[in-house]
Amino acid sequence: MTGGASGLGEATVRTLVGAGGKAVILDRPNSNGEQLAKALGANVAFAPADVTSDADVAKAVATAVDRFGTVHIAVNCAGVGTAMRTVTKEGPMPLEMFEMVVKINLIGTFNVLRLAAAQMAKNARNEEGERGVIVNTASVAAFDGQIGQAGYSASKAGVVGMTLPIARDLASLGIRVCTIAPGTFDTPMLALMPENQRQLLAAQIPFPSRLGRPSEFAALAGHIVENPMLNGETIRLDGALRMPPR
Length: 246
Prior knowledge:
Strand order of the largest sheet: 3-6-7-8
Order of helices and strands: HEHEHEEEHEHEHHHE
Low-confidence stretches: none
Number of helices: 8
Largest sheet: 4 strands, parallel
Structural class: alpha/beta
Helix content: 40-55%
């Protein structure tokens, strides 16, 4: 579970463990991952890692194998967002900013899923012929990118775009791949915003006219795991929101 120490990732860890699963929280070394793992008990471990690092993620997969025997589910929730127009009064957006967002959100997601899938391929098949499930996180910004979201939208559109081909790649191995594209959710990032801005964001959502709850994201992730016919699909989770230009 990448990004499992907070927000959508934490909610998903809690949901899967509450349903009887075991989890490895993969998050930054300075995150709340270790404390959360201790609070949730023996069925949860913490693996400090950078999702863009081959060695870090390989070590996290090894931690899962050592602690719990193998990997059956991988949920990618780690991500970052930046806001800057392509060209400002000061000049063009720094290339490093665009690269950083794409590296974490897109390349990091692929790095985790490729290593998790390699481990899943060693599993025995269940009665459906399945060996594992991968759930990625995109965003409605993949479809409705706003002003200043070039890097973020590109990275999330990349996650959407690779979902079907990777599902096809892994089909013969019995590994399913789906992506959730959430709208505006009540995460720690939004918690830093003034309440009036939070209310404005909520008012843009047709129904329900409120911010999404992390538990609702987690419930969909859990359903994807449980429903063997869900594969190769990106599911919008947004209350019918279509983002305006700004």
